[in-house]
Amino acid sequence: MTRIRLLRGVIGVCAVAALAEAAARLGAVDPQVVPSASAVLLRSVALAGDPVFLAGLADTVLAWLAGLVLALAAAVAAGVVLGSVPWLSTPSRIVVEFLRPIPSVALIPLAILLFGSETEMKISLIFYAATWPILLNTLYALRDVDPLAKETLRSFGFGSLAVLWRVSLPSAAPFVATGLRVAAGVALVVVVGAELLSGGTSGLGVFLIEAGSAGGGTDVTLAGAVWAGAFGLAVNALLVRAERGAFHWHFARTGQAAG
Amino acid sequence: MRGPGTAARGARRMLAGVFSRLWLAAVLVAAWEAVTRAVQESYFPPPSQIVVAMHELWFSGPAGSLFLTEDAREDFGHSLYNLFGGWVLACLAGVVLGVALGRSRTLADYVEPVIHFGRAVPPPTLLSFYIAVFSLGTPMQVATIVSGVVWPVLLNTIDGVRTVDRLQLDSAQVFGVRGSGLLLRVVIPAAMPKIVAGLRISLGIALILMVLSELVGSTAGIGSLLIGAQRSFELPEMWAGIMLLGVLGYLLNAVFVTVERRLLRWHLNVREAA
């Protein structure tokens, strides 16, 4: 069954590639503008050995990773504080509701002015964009922790820190992980967007914009997008697998697979 | 009987409720104003100055056009046209394709890897490709939005259609409901909660991509005003653009939630009863 599905998937991918190839070869689209699938594929392979591209990709990924880790730490800490201090949690909801909808890309022009260093600029933007999904998921998850479990621990004489560490955080962790997965996707959008605009020296977005403006065919930009997509797929698969491994008890209880 | 005493007590309680919600926001705005005035850093104009800039840019027009200025009508019109144009196109495509793929496991097996790859590609990486294909302007922006936001709608629709209750499908069949009747009266309503969740995610992404596509390549719209203000160091105007986009994001979400409640009232009722 899985083998049939795998086979069908491969056939589907090949069919789409063949269709794109045919459209370019038969002149349905201008191959100067929309390159054939084979050209993009060849260029992707070539990019894998291109030091400029690899250095750019590494810069982007490192900034992305640093921003995400910082956002995770800050958002979980803020979520715990806001979730456990009642007189702060009600008024902070309004503040969060007004800050969250600011599209993070709208801050790119400000961040470019504020930060002299490219890396700092990127990490700050990623931090802003990634904080909200993680913070909101942490807040909602902490509100939904089973009160019986907390009371049980309390009646055995555990302090509130022990309750937080042994009950609240573990039961919130699967939702925090979901928030992290959403944040990882948004962060990738923001960091590439920032690189497109900043006129910086290194990064995936910088590589793409230079490839586009140098008049070198669109096969280079599409090959860059192919690698970015492969990276996105790998990250998602890795996070889903890590979630399943770490929180198998959670998925066994709710009867759902991480999606 | 409710005497004047209870009314006063009710009003006082409401006031206390409003205060307990808003005091932090008020304190933060006041602190923002005070600190920015004290520091006099040109990158951080005080919020009062930002509001003045917003008023001058967009809301000082004649009463006949709802106080919107000429610029406001042009900027908002351009941005909202691209935003909703792209979003609606992507939603239509996503729902139609998603229903087809959700109904046929075989068909879904063939295209699902392609869909997952498409979703994984960060939309900004395609921007320079679209600029090459469409050059700058509305088609480029709409293409960016459509190809970025179609995926959540598509995947959620597939999921929603696939998990329609077997019993509902069987009962419909017993009553002789089939074909398009089955789709419109059973399958799509049952999948609606998941479809709407996908539409909401995609609206958020559409706003991000609208701003980004205007920042990178456009001469009209809120995003292009923002980057123009940045390049000429008009800081209050730039902050006004950021604020406006925040308000827009807030309003879009609020309107969506209201419509969603209306649309899914039956679903929420069923869930509460269960």
UniProtKB/TrEMBL annotation, chain A:
Question: Matching Pfam families, A to Z?
Answer: BPD_transp_1
TM regions (residue ranges):
32-54, 61-86, 98-116, 123-143, 155-177, 184-209, 221-240
Primary location: membrane
According to the UniProt entry, the coiled-coil residues are none
**UniProt xrefs under Gene3D superfamilies:** MetI-like
User: By its UniProt entry, which InterPro entries does this protein fall under?
Assistant: MetI-like, MetI-like_sf
Keywords for the protein's UniProt record, in alphabetical order = Cell membrane, Membrane, Transmembrane, Transmembrane helix, Transport
How does the record classify its membrane topology? Multi-pass membrane protein
Q: Where does this polypeptide localize? A: Cell membrane
Domain ABC transmembrane type-1 as annotated: residue spans:
57-239
| Stated family | Belongs to the binding-protein-dependent transport system permease family.
Checking PANTHER family in the record gives:
ABC TRANSPORTER PERMEASE PROTEIN MJ0413-RELATED, ALKANE SULFONATE ABC TRANSPORTER-RELATED, MEMBRANE SUBUNIT
- State what protein this is by name: ABC transporter permease
Q: Which organism is it from?
A: Planomonospora alba
- What is the phylogenetic placement of the source species in the record? Bacteria, Bacillati, Actinomycetota, Actinomycetes, Streptosporangiales
From TrEMBL, chain B:
Keywords recorded for this protein, A-Z: Cell membrane, Membrane, Transmembrane, Transmembrane helix, Transport
Please verify whether the record's keywords include Chloroplast: no
Q: Where is the ABC transmembrane type-1 domain?
A: 76-256
The membrane-topology field of this record reads: Multi-pass membrane protein
Q: What is its main location?
A: membrane
Q: Where in the cell is it found?
A: Cell membrane
Matching InterPro entries: MetI-like, MetI-like_sf
A Pfam family this chain is assigned to = BPD_transp_1
**SUPFAM superfamilies from the entry?**
MetI-like (SSF161098)
Any transmembrane segments, and where? 48-68, 80-101, 129-154, 201-227, 239-259
**What does the sequence similarity comment in the record state about its family?**
Belongs to the binding-protein-dependent transport system permease family.
User: What protein name is recorded for this chain?
Assistant: ABC transporter permease
**Annotated organism of origin:** Planomonospora alba
